Amino acid sequence: RVRNQLNVWIQVKIDNANQVYQEASAQFSRMQRVSLIVIAVLVLVVGGIGFITARSIVRPLAVLTDAAARISNHELVKEIPVHSQDELGTLAHTMKMMVAAIQTHQARQLQTEAEVRALNTRLEQRVKERTEELERTNRALEAEIGERQRTETLLRESDERLNLALKSSGV
User: Fold this and answer.
1) Is 100 in contact with 107 (CB distance < 8 Å)?
2) Which of 10, 107, 112, 171 has its Cα between 20 and 30 A from that of 82?
């Protein structure tokens, strides 16, 4: 009878242990599922945050790279659409100031070139006028030289005639 009671008691303990084991195993399975769900959610959240962070860096860098390429190709860049408040925003702002400075320089250069062209045109006109004036003066001088040469020739001829007449008259 003690043996029976002992066997019953051991069986109760075994049944009790089996029940505790099954409950622990079920709880472990639930915890495992919950852990996997939490891990999956965390992976998605961290992945999403990583993706958003990467995009917030890559997209402005792509915009800045595109703007730099257009600037190097001498294209007019009106807008650099980066509005962040971090280092990329500072770089975009600096590039906007650089573009403004380049455009101001180009405008001044175009204005200076136009002024130089106008000055060249006026200078060419003045050279033309002075050349025409010099040509007129030269023609007048050539005419005067010709007249003087004719007068000199006439004077020499007259002097020779006078000398001949004086020699003929014996004086």
Assistant:
1) no
2) 107
